[in-house]
Design a protein that fits this description.
The structure holds 2 protein chains of 2 kinds.
Chain A: H1 12-35, H2 43-57, H3 83-97, H4 99-103, H5 110-118, H6 121-126, E1 132-135, E2 151-155, E3 158-169, E4 176-182, E5 192-198, E6 204-209, E7 220-231, H7 248-282, H8 298-325, H9 331-355, H10 357-361, H11 367-373, H12 384-396
Parallel strand pairs in A: 1-4
Antiparallel strand pairs in A: 2-3, 3-7, 4-5, 6-7
Chain B: H1 3-8, H2 23-36, H3 38-42, E1 62-64, H4 99-126, H5 131-139, H6 160-173, H7 175-194, H8 197-209, E2 211-212, E3 219-220, E4 224-227, E5 243-247, E6 250-260, E7 268-275, E8 278-285, E9 291-295, E10 307-316, E11 321-322, H9 328-362, E12 364-365, E13 368-369, H10 374-402, H11 408-432, H12 444-451
Parallel strand pairs in B: 4-7, 5-7
Antiparallel strand pairs in B: 1-9, 2-3, 5-6, 6-10, 7-8, 8-11, 9-10, 12-13
Helix pairs in contact in B: 4-6, 6-7, 6-9, 6-10, 7-8, 7-9, 9-10, 9-11, 9-12, 10-11, 11-12
The chains are: A alpha+beta, B alpha+beta.
Chain lengths: 404, 463
C-alpha cells in the first residue's frame, strides 16, 4: 500500500480508447444534435454495440453506468481498482466528448445503475441488455424524493401503478423505465420501491418531451401511468416494507450514481479548459505553474484557479469510486464529489466563455454549449444544496429532523 | 526624511504618500506625539510594560547571528552525495498510506496533540518555540526524516509522501510550532537531495546525532533555516534580488531575506541568491562575517521566530553552492517547499474544521443549536469538501514527487487551491464562532492568522 493518485495503470488504455471515441465519434455530431433537439442520434447505436462488445469480451470493465455494481467477492485485503473507477474515468472521457450524447447511450442509463445497485441476482440476469431509464421526479416534488406520490397497489401477482413522472432521461427511447412508487404513502420512505416497467406496458404513456437549456441530444420525457399493471417480480430488491431500513435501499443507488454525475461534470469542464488553454495561448497567454497567480495576467490567474478546482473535483470523484471499489461506505465522499464537481463545472464552463469573449459566446465554438450542458450536472441526481445538506449532516452528525 | 515629507503625513504607517494633512490633522498628530513621549512615563502616568530582553517579537530589533559551531570539513568535494531512489510505482490508485507512514503519522499526531497544541498560544505570543517542544521533536527524528538512511537518516526511498503526512499532522497541532520544528529538517533534506559528498559529510552528522558544542560537551542538533523569502511587493521567488557575485574562487552575497524561521538560533542557512541571472542555493554558516538579523514578526506563524537576515558582503567559498547553478535545483527547491506549505495548510484547516464542528452543535441561538441552520451547516459542509479537495490534490503532488515523476503542474495547482481554500476555511472558522472567534479565548483567530501565510511563504520547509 502506498498513496498514489495517478490514473490507475490498468484502466489507462481503456481511458485512452474512450477518449478517441469521444473525439472522433461524439465531437463531430455534438453541434448537430444540440440543434436537432429530440432527434434520435442514430450514430449511437453502433457505439452502443461496440460498448456491449467490449463488455462481453471483458475488456471494457464498466464502460458506462451499467458497470456500477458492488462485487460480492470476499475482501482479500488487497486494494482494488475496479469497475467504479473504470466507470468514472470512461464517463468523464465520454463527457469530454458530449454530455448529452453520453446520456443518450443505449443501455448505459441511470436506470441501469439502479438495476445494478438494487436488483437481486435473478433480476440482474433477467434485465441484462435492457436499456432502462430512471423515473423518480414528479410535478409536485424534485429533491424531496420521499414525497413520491405515484402509487403501486398489489393485485394478485401484479402491482398496479398510477401517477405522473417528469424529467425521465431517455424516457421515450429506452426499453424500460425504473419507476419509484409507494406501496403505502402513510408508511413514508420505507414504502417507496422501484419497479421495472417495460416499454409498451398498457397504461404507460409518454406525454411529451422537454425543450431544454442544454444536453439537448438527450431526450427528457414526461410519462404517465394509468392503471399500469407490472409483474410482481419486477419490483427491484426486497418487497417487504421495513420501516427500520427506511430509505436506505433506494438511496443506495445514489451513492453509486453521484460519482458518475460528478464524472460528467469533470469531463465537460475539461473540454472547456482544454480548448480555452489553446485559445489563450494563441492570444499570447501562457499559464505558468511556478509563478504565483498574482504575478501573471488576470486570465492566466483565473485559469490556474479553475484548473486547481478541477483537479480537486476530479480527485474527489476518483476517491468516491475507489471507495466503492473497495467496499467502503462512500455516501459522504460521493456527495462531496458531486457538490464540488457540480459547482466547479459551472464556474469553469461559464468562465471559459467569458475569457474567450464573443468567440466563447457564439456557436462557432462549443464553449457556449458546454456552459449550457454543465448546468444540469449541478441539479440532477441531487442538487448542489442537497449534496451540501448530506455532507453537513454527515460531518456534524445530525439527523434529517435536526438539520432540515 | 525631508521636512516636507514629515509635514505631509502620508508615506508612513500604511498611509499612501498621496495623503496630505489638514489643520486638524496637524493638531491630532501633535497630540499623538505627546502621547508617545517619555514624559508620560517619567511622571509615572503610564505603566512600564516593555522589556528590553525579547528578540523577535518586535520588528527592527537588530542582533548578530548565532556564533554557531564550526562545521568540520569532511568528504570529497567533487563526488556526488548519497541519493535515495524514488519509490517504485505499482500503478494502483490508492489512498492508503504505507504501514511505516501510518506509524510515523500516529507518533507525530500524538506529539502534535500533546505537545504542540498546549504550547501554541504562548509560543505565538513569545514568537519562539519552547525548549521542551524542540527537544521532543529531535526525539521523534523530525530533522532527519528526509535524510538518506546511508547517512544516518531514516529515508530509504524518496520520502515526500511521508514528509507531507508529517507536516499535515504537525500543523494540526499548531502551524507556527510545526514550522519551528520542521525548519532544520528542511536544510537537512536539501543536503540529502542536492549536497555533494563533502557537503553531506560536513553538515549532516550534527543533524543526525548532534555534535558537542556546550561547555560540558553536551551534544546538540543545530537549528537551520531555508531562506528564500524577500521583502518585496509582488515577490517572485524565482527572481531573487539577493545577488551572488564571483570573487576569487568563492562568492560574495548581498541582499535581504525576510521571514527566516528561527534565524536567531540558526547555525546554518540555505540562502537563495541570483548568480549570473540564475537563482541558486548557497550554504551560509551563521558565523560568516557580514550577516546580521532583525526581528521580523508577522501576523501569524509567529512561533517560528521569524527574522530578517541581512547579507552585506558575505563571503562564502566555492563549495557553498548547493546543487546546480542553472536554476533547476532552486526551482525544484521552491516547488518542494510549496508542497510542504500545502501539507501544513491541510493540518491547520483540519484543526479549524474539528474545532467548529462541536462548537456549532453546542452554541444555541433562537432556541436551537446554530448547526441546525443551513447557513451554518453549509459553511461547515463546504469546509469539509474544500479541505478534502486540497488534501487529494496535495497528496497527488506528493506521490508524484516520491515516484520521481514531474510534479510542477500538480504542485502549482495544490499551491493555488490551498492558498485560496485554506484562507476561506480560516475566515469561515472565525465567522462561525462569531465575536468569540475574534478573541484569544479560542485558537481559531490564530489559525486565521496562520493560514494567510499559505500563499505567501516560500522556502522554510521542504518535503
Amino acid at each position: 500500500m502506498a498513496i498514489n493518485l495517478e490514473d490507475p495503470k490498468k484502466f489507462r488504455p481503456l481511458r485512452d480508447q474512450v477518449h478517441q471515441v469521444a473525439m472522433n465519434m461524439l465531437r463531430p455530431i455534438s453541434r448537430k444534435y444540440d440543434k436537432a433537439e429530440h432527434a434520435y442520434p442514430k450514430e449511437l447505436d453502433m457505439l452502443a454495440a461496440m460498448a456491449d462488445g467490449l463488455a462481453e469480451s471483458g475488456a471494457g470493465e464498466g464502460a458506462g453506468a451499467a458497470g456500477v455494481r458492488r462485487e460480492e467477492s470476499a475482501d482479500d485485503g488487497n486494494v482494488k481498482n475496479g469497475s467504479n473507477l473504470a466507470s468514472v474515468m470512461t464517463i468523464a472521457e465520454m463527457c469530454w466528448g458530449d454530455v448529452g450524447l453520453l446520456l443518450s447511450m443505449p443501455r448505459q442509463g441511470l436506470g441501469n445503475s439502479a438495476i445494478a445497485s438494487v436488483a437481486n441476482e435473478e433480476q440482474a440476469e433477467r434485465f441484462k441488455g435492457v436499456w432502462a431509464s430512471m423515473a423518480i421526479t414528479e410535478p409536485s416534488f424534485g429533491s424531496d424524493s420521499a414525497q413520491v406520490g405515484t402509487t403501486a397497489v398489489k393485485d394478485g401477482d401484479h402491482y398496479v401503478l398510477n401517477g405522473e413522472k417528469i424529467f425521465v432521461t431517455s424516457g421515450e427511447r429506452s426499453d424500460a423505465v425504473v419507476v419509484w412508487a409507494t406501496l403505502d404513502k402513510s408508511l413514508g420512505r420505507a414504502a417507496i420501491k422501484s419497479f421495472v416497467v417495460p416499454k409498451g406496458t398498457p397504461g404507460m404513456k409518454v406525454e411529451r418531451l422537454e425543450h431544454k437549456l442544454g444536453i439537448k441530444a438527450s431526450d427528457t420525457a414526461t410519462i404517465t401511468f394509468t392503471d399500469c399493471r407490472v409483474p410482481a417480480e419486477n419490483l427491484l430488491g426486497n418487497p417487504e416494507v421495513n420501516t427500520n431500513e427506511g430509505f436506505a435501499g433506494a438511496m443506495a443507488t445514489f451513492d453509486n450514481t453521484r460519482p458518475l454525475v460528478a464524472a460528467m461534470a469533470v469531463g465537460c469542464a475539461r473540454a472547456s479548459l482544454d480548448l480555452t488553454r489553446e485559445l489563450l495561448a494563441k492570444a499570447g497567454v501562457e499559464v505558468d505553474y511556478d509563478r504565483p497567480a498574482q504575478l501573471q495576467s488576470a486570465a492566466a490567474a483565473k485559469f490556474l484557479q479553475m484548473e486547481a478546482d478541477w483537479e480537486g473535483a476530479y480527485l474527489l470523484t476518483l476517491q468516491a469510486a475507489w471507495m466503492a471499489d473497495n467496499r467502503k461506505p462512500n455516501s459522504l465522499e460521493a456527495s462531496m464529489a458531486k457538490a464540488k464537481a457540480g459547482r466547479v463545472g459551472s464556474d469553469i464552463t461559464l468562465s471559459c466563455v467569458e475569457l474567450c469573449s464573443s468567440v466563447g459566446y457564439v456557436e462557432t465554438e462549443l464553449l457556449e454549449k458546454w456552459s449550457r450542458d454543465s448546468k444540469i450536472l449541478d441539479i440532477f441526481e441531487g442538487t448542489q444544496q442537497i449534496q451540501q445538506l448530506i455532507v453537513a449532516r454527515r460531518v456534524l452528525g445530525l439527523s434529517s429532523a435536526e438539520l432540515k | 526624511m525631508s521636512l516636507l515629507q514629515i509635514l505631509k503625513g502620508g508615506g508612513r504607517h500604511g498611509v499612501p504618500s498621496t495623503e496630505n494633512r489638514d489643520p486638524i490633522g496637524f493638531a491630532v498628530a501633535g497630540l499623538n506625539r505627546l502621547a508617545q513621549s517619555d514624559l508620560l512615563d517619567k511622571w509615572g502616568v503610564r505603566r512600564q510594560t516593555e522589556k528590553g530582553v525579547f528578540t523577535v517579537t518586535r520588528s527592527g530589533f537588530k542582533m548578530a547571528t548565532n556564533a554557531g559551531r564550526s562545521f568540520k570539513r569532511a568528504g570529497n568535494r567533487s563526488k556526488a552525495g548519497v541519493r535515495v531512489p524514488s519509490a517504485t510505482p505499482k500503478g494502483i490508485f490508492d489512498l492508503t498510506p504505507s504501514e511505516d507512514e501510518q506509524m510515523l503519522v500516529d507518533v507525530v499526531s500524538e506529539y502534535a496533540a500533546e505537545v504542540l497544541r498546549p504550547a501554541a498560544h504562548d509560543a505565538d505570543e513569545a514568537c519562539t518555540a519552547p525548549e521542551e517542544v524542540l527537544k521532543a521533536s529531535l526525539e521523534i527524528g523530525l530533522p532527519i526524516l528526509g535524510v538518506p538512511e546511508a547517512l544516518g537518516g531514516i529515508s530509504e526511498t524518496r520520502s515526500a509522501t511521508a514528509g507531507t503526512l508529517v507536516a499535515e499532522a504537525l500543523a494540526k497541532g499548531d502551524l507556527g510550532l510545526a514550522v519551528s520544528v520542521l525548519a532544520p529538517g528542511a536544510v537537512a533534506t536539501a543536503l540529502g537531495l542536492w549536497g555533494t559528498d563533502e557537503q553531506q559529510q560536513t553538515y549532516l552528522p550534527p543533524f543526525v546525532d548532534g555534535t558537542a558544542t556546550g561547555p560540558g560537551g553536551e551534544r546538540s542538533v543545530p537549528a537551520a533555516s531555508l531562506a528564500l523569502n524577500e521583502p518585496t511587493v509582488l515577490f517572485d521567488v524565482l527572481a531573487p534580488a539577493t545577488t551572488a557575485t564571483r570573487a576569487g574562487d568563492g562568492f560574495v552575497l548581498n541582499g535581504v531575506k525576510s521571514l527566516v524561521a528561527r534565524g536567531s538560533e540558526a547555525e546554518l542557512f540555505v540562502v537563495g541568491a541570483s548568480l549570473d541571472g540564475s537563482p541558486t542555493l548557497f550554504l551560509v554558516e551563521s558565523s560568516a562575517a557580514g550577516l546580521s538579523l532583525e526581528g521580523d514578526p508577522g501576523m501569524g506563524v509567529r512561533a517560528a521566530g521569524m527574522t530578517r537576515l541581512v547579507l552585506a558582503d558575505v563571503r562564502v567559498s566555492a563549495d557553498a553552492v548547493l546543487g546546480a547553478t542553472d536554476g533547476t535545483t532552486y526551482t525544484e527547491c521552491v516547488r518542494l517547499a510549496r508542497l510542504g506549505w500545502c501539507a501544513l495548510a491541510l493540518g491547520t484547516a483540519q484543526a479549524v474544521l474539528d474545532y467548529v464542528t462541536p462548537y456549532v452543535k453546542e452554541r444555541q441561538a433562537f432556541g436551537e443549536p446554530i448547526a441546525h441552520r443551513q447557513a451554518v451547516a453549509f459553511a461547515v459542509a463546504n469546509m469539509a469538501i474544500e479541505l478534502q479537495a486540497m488534501r487529494l490534490v496535495t497528496y497527488k503532488a506528493a506521490s508524484r514527487v516520491a515516484q520521481g515523476i514531474d510534479a510542477s503542474r500538480e504542485i502549482g495547482l495544490a499551491r493555488k487551491l490551498c492558498a485560496d481554500k485554506a484562507m476561506q476555511i480560516g475566515l469561515d472558522g472565525v465567522q462561525l464562532l462569531g465575536g468569540h472567534g475574534f478573541t484569544k479565548e479560542h485558537p481559531v483567530e490564530r489559525w486565521y492568522r496562520d493560514l494567510r501565510a499559505i500563499g505567501i511563504m516560500e522556502g522554510t520547509v521542504l518535503v
